[in-house]
Design a protein that fits this description.
CATH superfamily of the largest domain: Probable inorganic polyphosphate/atp-NAD kinase, domain 2
Shape: elongated
CATH architecture of the largest domain: Sandwich
Number of helices: 4
Order of helices and strands: EHEEHEHEEEEEEHEEEEEEEE
CATH class of the largest domain: Mainly Beta
CATH topology of the largest domain: Tumour Suppressor Smad4
Structural class: mainly beta
Radius of gyration: 20 Å
Length: 290
């Protein structure tokens, strides 16, 4: 692979993150001298979509939030390497770093494996919503690695919509619809609805997603998939809200108005995430059945 590398780092002036950046820079400086690697650096707070056009490898230094905040701008061809700048240790308040395949202690070896094509490439599906307005205009929200929320922009007002998926066709009043990828369910979904003990077929995790109508009245919580579901078909939502939004991974908002139709599914661009000491699925093996 071409050795054009972009480092996106968390800039909050905390000593632990500054030290991690120094370690990463030292290792990359050695590769610049040794192999002529072309390396650029930019803070998460100033990064733009155009910055991801040229690099073949994007290194994200921070935690899961840093990675999800910039992954929206990365296409399905660019390799992404997560480096946990503050790994959690014991009672430490650091980052768990689920998506982070490396850390400062392993980085010098891991970056060489990545450049030599020896890393594990995990191809991760992402959720995306296509929005069609009443006038026929189409737009797509940012792809979501973890979860995607469709809701009324005024959270104190109910989300009103028509929900369609397969044989399901119902009108609902809830706190909005939450969609989650298989891997993203630990971020928010499992805190919204109780699915503890549920396991998922290994052959479905790349083309199925989780859905729940948040705070749907108990009398309306049917088992037909209109309350929560492990879905393999797109979900179509027709808004009956004056104003609503789609929020991808808790970051950017895409707004819509009454009458807009949203089609949500796993047709967003995939993300090519590198790991080094096991696949990303190894970390959630307890959720998977053969």
């Amino acid at each position: 692979m071409s050795e054009d590398v972009l480092v996106v780092y968390k800039k909050n002036f905390e000593d632990v993150h500054d030290k991690a950046l120094d370690q990463v820079r030292t290792a990359l400086d050695a590769l610049v001298e040794e192999r002529g690697v072309n390396v650029g650096y930019t803070a998460r707070e100033t990064v733009r979509r155009a910055d991801f056009t040229d690099p073949d490898l994007v290194i994200v230094l921070g935690g899961d939030g840093t990675l999800t905040s910039i992954a929206h701008s990365v296409d399905d061809q660019t390799l992404v390497m997560g480096v946990n700048s503050h790994p959690r240790s014991g009672g430490d308040e650091g980052s768990y770093g689920f998506y982070m395949g490396s850390d400062p202690a392993h980085f010098a070896d891991d970056i060489r494996a990545a450049l030599d094509g020896e890393a594990i490439v995990n191809v991760l599906p992402r959720l995306q919503a296509e929005i069609v307005t009443t006038s026929g205009n189409r737009t797509r929200c940012d792809p979501a690695l973890n979860d995607l929320l469709v809701a009324n922009t005024h959270q104190y007002q109910p989300s009103k919509y028509r929900l369609q998926r397969g044989p399901i066709d119902v009108a609902q009043h809830s706190s909005g619809c939450l969609f989650s990828t298989f891997l993203g369910q630990g971020a928010w979904f499992r805190h919204v609805t109780d699915i503890e003990g549920t396991t998922f077929h290994a052959g479905e995790i790349d083309d199925h997603y989780l859905f729940v109508a948040r705070e749907l009245p108990r009398t309306n919580r049917s088992e037909d998939g209109s309350y929560w579901d492990w879905a393999g078909e797109p979900t179509v939502i027709t808004s009956d809200m004056h104003r609503g939004y789609v929020v991808s991974d808790g970051w950017d908002e895409t707004h819509f108005t009454r009458g807009a139709t949203l089609t949500v599914g796993l047709d967003g661009p995939t993300l090519r995430l590198l790991t080094f000491r096991g696949t990303i699925l190894d970390r959630v093996a307890h959720w998977v059945r053969p």
